[in-house]
Specification:
The complex is a heterodimer. Chain A is an all-alpha fold. Chain A is built from 15 helices and no strands. Chain A has 2 domains: 48 residues, no CATH class; 211 residues, MetI-like (MetI-like fold). Classes of the chains: A mainly alpha, B mainly alpha. At the A-B interface, α1, α4, α5, α6 and α10 of A face α3, α5, α6, α7 and α10 of B.
Chain lengths: 296, 322
């Protein structure tokens, strides 16, 4: 780089530079804190609403804080919205999806990372290609296929695909991770008479726990937050997932005087697993994002 | 499992490689065994790809050229869906809404995420806490978030207009006004910049210090270092966030469905929302498939354009240098 100093002093006086960095630091901190507060306001607003009585919410001028704090909203919310039914349904689908994605994507990733075949590179290009394909293109024929199988109205369309490959992103992520495990370990295991399945299960998987955790967390989040799939495939109330149940409870019009105190309480509860998961697995999560560019 | 069977089976298969002599035969059959094992291990994906991607893809393409409304079998109708699409005013509206939203949310989102990442890369007290706070909203998504924002945008009792009111401005009826509804969605999307921020941060931290030192020695100030070191070095990340952002924005559905259902007067009719309506409310499957292919084409073209122009502004040494 050959940049010509445009009259910049080569060495600024020491003390002024120090105060300048100090001032700079204060400004930076100020901006960071302001931004953080702004980002937290929606959540605080949510908590505030979830603890208010319905009458208080619609008072003008606005009451900023709940007075008295109404914890009963949460009890009311979970009974009026059939919360635990939806919660159980969501959890069941999410758990099944996590197991399916982790198992099948790791199996496939093992093949791509460790085994040789003439058509491997072509197949891997296809894996990468499907990452670019928006799901909307295949949505309708998939629906028709599941309808022909009589799977509409069951959780199968939401769960079964995760057992068949589990998503190109996960295959890609795990393949990258498996490739970092030294091949010598495989060779040593082969000397000891281990077959490919043994190597995969007893060697590669235990060494890949962080990557598997990333896959698990992401597939949990996606499944937990998924809306379009359940909307298309689940038609009876007993099967609805949390997002679906919340939307139906909110009703058609957001302009209507909805029961915001209950909606906010239930929405907070619905977000809770994500937040808890995030705090337990923050490192894994952030690494996953950086590795693949996926967002929550 | 089937694996053992499949691995034994090829011994009996006659193939040219097996006819070769001695050691070569052994090696050839070992290679074949490995190839078969590969296909066995990859079979979940291969089956899944054939059943849930390739077949729907082909079927979708076929349906996009046919009339199919579920009751009677699909009939070939040539280009009529696509011709109808060109004349459909709602398609034009959906494309307009989605384009404005995408341009707004992606540009603002990428710029803000970059700025925040720059801040987070400074020496700030408790930087990990701040990073977490900036990041948390992006981990939340879907219906609860959409409901929360619908409530925030409430014209009379929502916090946004209350805050705006504090400085003496009367806020608009965000979601109820054709003029403001897309802006409201853009504003909401900015809550989730944390994901891009983390990616930018990783990019910033990957810039080797010696580049800055060299720039300093050449007498470069903060601004010059930013323009000639930081920006070129993270330009691949900018490209990545742009592409992912555009793809994501064009596929917006849940927020639109939950918060406005396309209203008022189709002012927030996102493309996928309209596609969903056509497919699952009007059961116009053929037309919806042609819409899906148009969406796919748009995404491909946009990605292509971004990549094509990238040779002018992305510094690829930064990529290979990693």
């Amino acid at each position: 780089m050959t940049s010509i100093p445009l009259g910049a002093p080569l060495a600024a006086p020491r003390h002024s530079k120090k105060t300048r960095t100090k001032v700079q630091q204060v400004i930076t901190t100020g901006v960071v804190v302001t931004g953080a507060c702004m980002l937290l306001v929606p959540l605080i607003w949510m908590i505030r609403t979830s603890l208010m009585s319905p009458g208080q919410i619609f008072l003008l001028p606005m009451r900023w804080l709940p007075d008295p704090v109404r914890w009963a909203n949460y009890r009311e919310a979970v009974t009026e919205i059939a919360f635990w039914t939806y919660f159980k349904n969501s959890l069941r689908i999410a758990m099944l999806t996590v197991v399916g994605s982790a198992l099948s994507s790791s199996l496939v990733a093992y093949a791509f990372a460790r085994l040789r075949a003439p058509d491997k590179d072509v197949l891997f290009m296809i894996v990468l290609g499907t990452m670019m394909l928006p799901g909307e293109v295949t949505m309708i024929p998939s629906f028709l296929l599941f309808r022909a199988l009589r799977w509409v109205g069951t959780i199968l369309p939401l769960v079964v695909p995760s057992y068949l490959g589990g998503g190109a992103f996960f295959i890609f992520l795990l393949r990258q991770f498996f490739s970092t495990i030294p091949l010598e370990l495989d060779d040593a295991a082969k000397m000891d008479g281990a077959g490919l399945l043994r190597i995969y299960w007893d060697l590669i998987l235990p060494l890949s726990k962080p990557a598997l955790a990333t896959v698990g967390i992401f597939s949990f989040f996606w499944s937990w937050n998924e809306f379009l799939g359940p909307l298309i495939y689940l038609d009876s109330m007993e099967q609805w997932t949390l997002p679906l149940g919340l939307k139906i409870f909110a009703g058609a019009g957001v302009y209507a005087q909805a029961k915001w105190h209950l909606l906010m309480a239930a929405s907070l509860l619905a977000m809770l697993p994500s937040v808890i998961f995030f705090f337990f697995a923050q490192r894994t999560f952030v690494r996953g994002i950086v590795l693949t560019g996926l967002k929550g | 499992m089937q694996a053992s069977q499949d691995v034994i089976a090829p011994a009996g298969v006659v193939s040219p490689s097996l006819l070769a002599a001695g050691r070569r035969r052994r090696r050839g059959s070992l290679e074949r065994q490995e190839a078969i094992a590969f296909h066995v291990f990859a079979s979940p994906w291969i089956i899944g790809f054939l059943v849930f991607t390739l077949f729907p893809l082909v079927a979708s393409l076929y349906l996009s050229f046919s009339k199919y409304e579920l009751i009677t079998p699909p009939t070939w109708s040539g280009l009529s869906n696509y011709r109808m699409l060109l004349r459909d005013p709602l398609i034009r509206q959906a494309l307009k809404v989605t384009t404005i939203y995408s341009v707004g949310s992606v540009t603002l989102g990428v710029v803000l995420a970059f700025l925040v990442a720059l801040l987070m890369n400074q020496k700030v007290k408790g930087v990990y806490v701040w990073r977490t706070i900036y990041y948390i909203p992006s981990t939340l998504s879907g219906v609860p978030v959409a409901l929360l924002w619908a409530w925030i945008f409430n014209p009379n009792f929502g916090i946004l207009n209350a805050a705006v009111g504090l400085v003496g401005i009367k806020g608009p009826n965000w979601l109820g006004s054709s003029d403001w509804v897309v802006s409201a969605f853009i504003l909401m999307s900015l809550w989730g910049i944390g994901g891009s921020m983390v990616i930018f941060l990783a990019g910033l931290q990957g810039i080797p210090d010696h580049l800055y030192e060299a720039a300093s020695l050449d007498g470069a100030g903060v601004l010059r270092k930013f323009c000639h070191v930081t920006v070129p070095m993270v330009s691949p990340v900018i490209l990545f966030n742009l592409v992912m952002g555009v793809i994501g924005a064009f596929r917006t559905f849940t927020a639109g469905y939950v918060m406005t259902d396309g209203g008022p007067a189709n002012a927030s009719l996102f493309y996928v929302l309209y596609l969903y309506r056509r497919a699952f409310r009007m059961f116009d499957m053929g037309y919806a498939c042609s819409m899906a292919w148009v969406l796919f084409a748009i995404i491909m073209v946009l990605t292509f354009i971004i990549f094509r122009t990238s040779s002018f502004w992305v510094y690829y040494e930064a990529v290979s240098g990693k």
